[in-house]
Write a structure and sequence with these properties.
Elements lengths: L21 E5 L15 H13 L3 E5 L10 H17 L7 E8 L2 E5 L5 E6 L10 E4 L11 E2 L8 E4 L2 E5 L2 H7 L4 E6 L6
Parallel strand pairs: 1-2
Antiparallel strand pairs: 3-4, 4-5, 5-10, 6-9, 7-10, 8-9
């Protein structure tokens, strides 16, 4: 009971854990600088961050500095890519909590302090832009909720589908988000189950 938090290394738990935890993971394969290290892609790093946060954890990302104290160029490129993604989607990560059911297909869920839900779509390798239509079965916006895609300026129309909902993304929104590793639907109010 007096433990600070647990730190699984180089792995993400399969399910949310009932205690504070943090995954300690390297950007490459080594904790220290290795001139021949192989780094994870920006997509893999963003997906790992989302997966961890959706399960209630924290990510400690290890990057070994070179002998002169500078970070390797490949690591800096990845940090910039993560930062660019966070500038648009950071509200779905910072200050959020896990939100059951945690995952549905390519989606991972987080809940903000105000009760709004973020459904983060993890793009498959080679999936360059969001799909034209998205359907979720495990949650539904409140009747008057204005669903938004983070990074787009206007709400998008949605339709009820059983206990879930469906959105069709305008081509302009899809083009605007092209090339990013994950896309977030922000739902300000969810219907009570």
């Amino acid at each position: 009971p007096y433990e600070d938090y647990r730190t699984p290394e180089q792995t993400v738990p399969k399910h949310p854990l009932p205690y504070p935890w943090e995954t300690c993971m390297t950007m490459g394969k080594s904790w220290s600088w290795d001139p021949h290290d192989t780094y994870k892609s920006p997509r893999e790093l963003v997906h790992t961050l989302v997966e961890i946060v959706a399960k209630g954890g924290n990510l400690l990302l290890g990057v070994g500095p070179q002998g002169n104290g500078e970070l390797p160029a490949a690591a800096l490129e990845r940090l910039k890519a993560i930062g660019a993604w966070m500038r648009t989607n950071g509200s779905a990560i910072h200050g959020t909590r896990p939100r059951a059911p945690y995952a549905e297909g390519k989606f991972r869920f987080t809940q903000s302090k105000d009760g709004s839900v973020n459904a983060i779509y993890l793009a498959a390798d080679g999936e360059g832009e969001p799909p034209a239509a998205i359907e979720l079965r495990s949650l539904q916006p409140a009747p008057d909720a204005q669903v938004r895609v983070l990074g787009a300026s206007h709400p998008i129309a949605w339709q009820s589908r059983g206990s879930g909902f469906r959105v069709e993304l305008p081509q302009a929104v899809r083009r605007r988000l092209a090339g990013t590793p994950a896309w977030t639907l922000h739902i300000p109010a969810v219907r009570a189950s």
